[in-house]
């Protein structure tokens, strides 16, 4: 119980401290289910890829499923394998390229007044931007009048899920506790928004978007997917797909504010590539240092800061036996900061991701998007989105974060900046907006 309280109080510090006990650390569990914390890439590789048939997401998927249903993030095999096979074509490079036009247009609109706002919570502004990008870039629809309500629904769902994931023995969902009732109302409101979206898009399903692709999926008998399954996929991308990118960009802006020399190098690359114009989809692969900055931020502050799994049968890896029905905790945050894999691991050094250099770390020592069949299906889209948004911000502004507010991680469902990142932006002169 003492260790459980330590974990609840500061989960990141607790997980970091367990490194001193080995690469696979068994800890007592309140619910009598054996729990193992995994720190070695070879064991992580086994769990996420090699021995995947023996692994499920288990209770963590059930908690997130209370909001998301059985979408790609929460479903178990074989349903997960079918869903991934059906959705993968929607993330082809051509779809990502088409969505880039929406990303650039929306970014220009959202950041237009940042220079006259004074100090503001840029994390909230980024959440607003990335919500629009999901709706317009992936669904081909506008958020419209549901914007404020969606932010409330998402915040309620994230807080509820984070709290429930941290509870050793959560209250049954059927009990009419205040938190359960609030969450049920939020899910009902989310359903209303998503089903209205589906009704409005049925007659406009020819535009090549993720949503139109889902609407055209047929099962083995030629029947379209049930509306409930489509709803679950949309909920997954709305809630899981927009907050992670917004949190990533918050951490990028914080790290650049703390490292002026890196910022200057980013600015020179952006100015050299873009000249007097805004970025385009073609620029994504012409901004290598911007992408290095994003990859290094993903190393230091991975949005998916922890991954939870469960064994369905005995797992033997690295001469260690892990019994069936064991809980497994993998923390990319902790693994990414291990000096065995990354020199000067706690320092912000984007150059370590220079593709001209040989990567010296094991494949599963760097897992910001997971691994195996559950590698994030939208990782290419997320990287393109972050690259274009960051390039647009750097092109237009300089900034500094509010140093009176202590910046620290908040390990929620995604790794947030605790209290949000507050910053002041200054228009660069001259600025040329070519839209």
The order of strands across the largest sheet is 1-2-8-5-3
This entry's quaternary arrangement is single chain
What is CATH's topology name? Answer: Cytochrome p450
Number of domains: 1
Shape: globular
Low-confidence parts: none
**What is the CATH domain class?**
Mainly Alpha
Structural class of the secondary structure composition? alpha+beta
Count of individual beta strands: 12
Estimate the helix proportion, in percent. 40-55%
Major sheet description:
5 strands, mixed
As a percent range, the share of strand residues is: 5-15%
Mean pLDDT: 91
By DSSP (H or I, 4+ residues per run), the number of helices equals: 15
CATH homologous superfamily? Cytochrome P450
Rounded to the nearest angstrom, the distance between the terminal CA atoms is 58 Å
Gyration radius over CA: 22 Å
User: Would you identify the CATH architecture?
Assistant: Orthogonal Bundle
Keywords:
alpha+beta, Cytochrome p450, five-stranded mixed sheet, three-stranded antiparallel sheet, 12 strands, 49% helix, heme, iron ion binding
Structure report:
By secondary structure, this protein is an alpha+beta fold. It has a single domain, classed as Orthogonal Bundle (Cytochrome p450), CATH 1.10.630.10. Helix content is 49%, strand content 10%. The chain contains 15 helices and twelve strands. It has a five-stranded mixed β-sheet with strand order 1-2-8-5-3. Helix 9 (178-201) packs across helix 11 (227-258) and helix 11 crosses helix 13. The longest helix has 32 residues, at 227-258. The radius of gyration is 22 Å and the shape is globular. The model has no long low-confidence stretch (mean pLDDT 91).
């Amino acid at each position: 119980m003492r260790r459980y309280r330590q974990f609840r109080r500061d989960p990141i510090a607790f997980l970091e401290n367990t490194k001193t006990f080995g690469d696979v650390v068994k800890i007592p569990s309140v619910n009598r289910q054996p729990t193992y914390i995994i720190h070695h890439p070879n064991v992580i590789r086994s769990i996420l890829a090699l021995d995947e048939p023996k692994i499920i997401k288990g209770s963590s998927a059930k908690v997130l499923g209370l909001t998301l249903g059985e979408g790609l993030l929460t479903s178990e095999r074989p349903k997960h394998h079918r869903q991934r096979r059906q959705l993968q074509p929607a993330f082809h490079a051509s779809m990502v390229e088409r969505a880039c036009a929406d990303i650039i247009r929306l970014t220009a609109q959202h950041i237009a007044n940042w220079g006259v706002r004074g100090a503001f919570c840029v994390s909230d502004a980024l959440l607003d931007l990335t919500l629009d990008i999901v709706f317009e870039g992936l669904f081909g629809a506008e958020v419209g009048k549901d914007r404020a309500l969606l932010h409330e629904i998402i915040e309620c769902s994230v807080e509820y899920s984070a709290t429930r994931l941290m509870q050793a023995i959560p209250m049954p969902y059927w009990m009419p506790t205040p938190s359960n009732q609030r969450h049920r109302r939020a899910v009902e409101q989310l359903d209303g928004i998503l089903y209205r979206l589906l009704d409005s898009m049925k007659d406009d399903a020819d535009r090549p978007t993720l949503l139109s692709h889902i609407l055209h999926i047929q099962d083995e008998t030629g029947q379209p997917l049930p509306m409930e399954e489509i709803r679950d996929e949309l909920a997954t991308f709305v809630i899981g797909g927009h907050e992670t990118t917004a949190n990533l960009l918050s951490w990028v802006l914080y790290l650049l504010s703390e490292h002026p020399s890196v910022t200057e190098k980013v600015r020179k690359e952006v100015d050299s590539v873009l000249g007097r114009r805004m970025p385009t989809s073609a620029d994504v692969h012409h901004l290598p240092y911007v992408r290095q900055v994003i990859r290094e931020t993903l190393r230091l502050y991975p949005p998916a800061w922890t991954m939870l799994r469960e064994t369905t049968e005995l797992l033997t890896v690295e001469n260690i036996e892990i019994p069936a029905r064991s809980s497994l905790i993998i923390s990319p945050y902790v693994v990414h900061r291990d000096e065995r894999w990354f020199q000067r691991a706690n320092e912000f050094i984007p150059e370590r991701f220079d593709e001209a250099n040989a990567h010296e770390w094991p494949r599963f020592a760097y897992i910001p998007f997971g691994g195996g069949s559950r590698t994030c299906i939208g990782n290419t889209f997320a990287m393109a989105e972050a690259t274009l948004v960051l390039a647009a911000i750097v092109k237009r502004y300089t900034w500094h974060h509010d140093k009176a507010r202590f910046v620290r991680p908040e390990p929620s469902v995604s790794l947030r900046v605790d209290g949000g990142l507050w910053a002041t932006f200054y228009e660069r002169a001259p600025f040329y907006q070519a839209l």
